[in-house]
Amino acid sequence: EMEVTDPSWKEAEVELYTIPAQSSWFLWDDIHEIERREFEEFFSESSITRTPKVYKEYRDFIINKYREDTTRRLTFTSIRKFLVGDVNLLRKVFLFLEHWGLINFGSDASLVEVEEKHVAKIEQGNPAGIRVTAAPNSMRPITAPPLVEERAESGLKLPPLTSYSDVFSDLKKPSNDGLVCGHCRERFDSDFYEHHKRVVNICQKCFKNGDYGENNSADDFKLIGNGAAAVWTEEEILLLLESVLKHGDDWELVAQSVSTKSRLDCISKLIELPFGEFLMGSASGRLISSVPTEDENSGHHSSPSHPDGQEHRETEMGEEKEDLVDEDEPLAKRKRVALISDGDTSLMKQVAAMACRVGPSVTTAAAKAAIAALCEEASCPKEFFETDDYTHSAPDRFDSPSPQFADGFASHVAVKTILKLSLFHRADGDKDTDMEEQQQGGKEGPQDLPVALRIRASVATGLGAAAAQAKILADEEEREMEHLAASVIDQQLKKLQSKLKFLDHLELIMDEEERVMDGVKESILQERISVLQYAFRGGITKRWDHTYVK
Amino acid sequence: MKASGSTGWKGPVKFRMPTAENLVPIRLDIQFEGQRYKDAFTWNPSDPDSEVAVFAKRTVKDLKLPPAFVTQIAQSIQSQLSDFRSYEGQDMYTGEKIIPIKLDLRVNQTLIKDQFLWDLNNFESDPEEFARTLCKDLGVEDPEVGPAVAFAIREQLYEVKTLIAIQNVASARESRLTKKGRRGSDHGSASKASGLSMDLVKLFSFKSSVVRKRKDLDVYEPVVDLLTNEEVDALEAREERHAR
């Protein structure tokens, strides 16, 4: 709840302070019943020092003092010096205000405010620096207290930042470029052993000999095939991206996840990738609010409907990665990577999750594109979809379904699809024969349909359903927004009207005053005239001549 | 009985410490055979007197003092308690009485200087709570400081109270002699009756404010100082010299 402390017309001077809802009884100009009950001693008129006026002064002073700086927690000791009176009574008032949240609202009472410590005044001789002594557990004082540095502990512990030189300094060293053994300084013939922590590699010979170098043991080294460092398969790239997103800057963990590649390799590969640095820089954030263009997205989102093993996905990703130049691309990439790494959920769930995170227009387009893509790939699905009246008009219908209809419709479609599919058997058949057979009609005997198609079809329907839902939500949101906008405009108009009224009123008053002034002016003039007349009659003209003539 | 502090004349109450807990300040300073034992603590007068001996024995055992200290300690405590009890028979005036309390003490390496007003007859007052707040707000780490502050406050309260009690006895005697029918308390002028000095009366009047003037703020502000070891030693040496 907010309390306006300066309830004036001017917008500029309004200050707002937060107090709890149950303290809304508080008023600056008055003393509430709650206060009267609590502090009977002030209201019983039994003493000079305890009057309502005094209570109000205490109270107002304390609250104002707090509000001078609401970020710091006001302590009793800091204000008691300002107020005259029994400190116990003052403390009672202070505690009362704190209890009701009129001061120190939201300040954590358990926080130790190191800044609040009073700096010592110089007493005698050499000034003594403030030293914090460790609190002794026993009752006896410590004779030589150790100097303890105290820092207010921040709640957030940030991971240690790696500097560029930390990570890449080894890259600069020539010895590693040429793959030279860290110990015997000879070039590697074939496989070498890499130290899992430091950038020290030793050749096979040295490893066998046991010459690990200082402080290293056999376990520290990992055998790495010579050629392995250069080639990155799609799986590895995918793993790399996933682990970078998960672990951020922690290259140890990243290297562990991508087990076949060393830490350096990971980092260098990441830099090589067009968007790698972008990823590194913001590896902690996953989802972006901006929605990439529809075309791109539809192209990307159609690929999840290829579930034929990881490689397939990654090949696509690999291909698309090489192509991209765009800035929007990496965003879509990251989104997808993040989702895929959620990994073990079913495809439908993934699709649903995707639909939730992405805008409704996007999912609509995605659904359309999915179905289009499916239809493009082989004509059989097209026919398959076409045989069913509902599904054919699905993309169009998505633009304006009614809520119940959409749900029922989607489930209806799904059921139908599954029924149809179940009539066909699994696996890869000859596409031509399939087409022919399917053209004869969907309900005929066991027909072969590739598993992929089946799944694709169901996914497409799922997407469709999601799209429908999304569209509905979008419409609702829009309506809501319009409504709110209208009400805001309404309010503004009302404000304007009342202001105009006020100004009109003012004008009226001003006119009235003007009239009055005119009247006064006239009467004064009349007086003057009469005075002059009188003067003339009396014969006093000399002085007046000048002004009169003029 | 409503616990609302002192709200004017409530009628006479038996002499006691005007704090939430009736604890008597006891100070010990015993020198014997070259050893010196100094201590200050609060005692609950409703404890049976047998406790005194128990306390003395335990103290000597804990601090490994020579056994002769036991009787000395017990005697000292006992006499202070009897002092307190001698006032207990009297009636106390329970109207408001605001006195200044001054703190100027050193506990190990912490020096505290402070001054504030205390209503001598506010029976809700709590020196221990006040001391705790003081230490917490000022970030005093040494756990011995709080109790020392509380003790200092108690001591001063006790002192003033006994002074008043003595005064009352004297004036009571006087009034009986003069047969003016004045009761054992002083009514006198308004300031006396309300237990305030004239300045305070002015402060609480309708026209002025209870917010302290700037020039007085320094006096009423608590000052905490942390000394180095050398300074502590120097001070202690000085104190010893003064004591002799």
Automatic annotation (TrEMBL), chain A:
One of its GO terms (biological process) is chromatin organization. Residues 308-318 have a biased composition (Basic and acidic residues). Residues 319-329 have a biased composition (Acidic residues). Coiled coil: none annotated. The keyword Transcription applies. GO terms for cellular component: nucleus. The keyword Transcription regulation applies. Keywords: Chromatin regulator, Developmental protein, Nucleus, Transcription, Transcription regulation. Residues 228-276 form the Myb-like domain. It holds the Pfam family SWIRM. Residues 289-329 are annotated as: Disordered. This is Myb-like domain-containing protein. It comes from Thlaspi arvense (Field penny-cress). The lineage of its organism: Eukaryota, Viridiplantae, Streptophyta, Embryophyta, Tracheophyta.
TrEMBL record, chain B:
InterPro entries: SNF5. The keyword Isomerase does not apply. Its main location: nucleus. It holds the Pfam family SNF5. It is found in: Nucleus. GO terms for biological process: chromatin remodeling. Keywords: Nucleus, Transcription, Transcription regulation. One of its GO terms (cellular component) is nuclear chromosome. PANTHER family: SNF5 (PTHR10019). Belongs to the SNF5 family. This is Bushy growth protein. It comes from Thlaspi arvense.
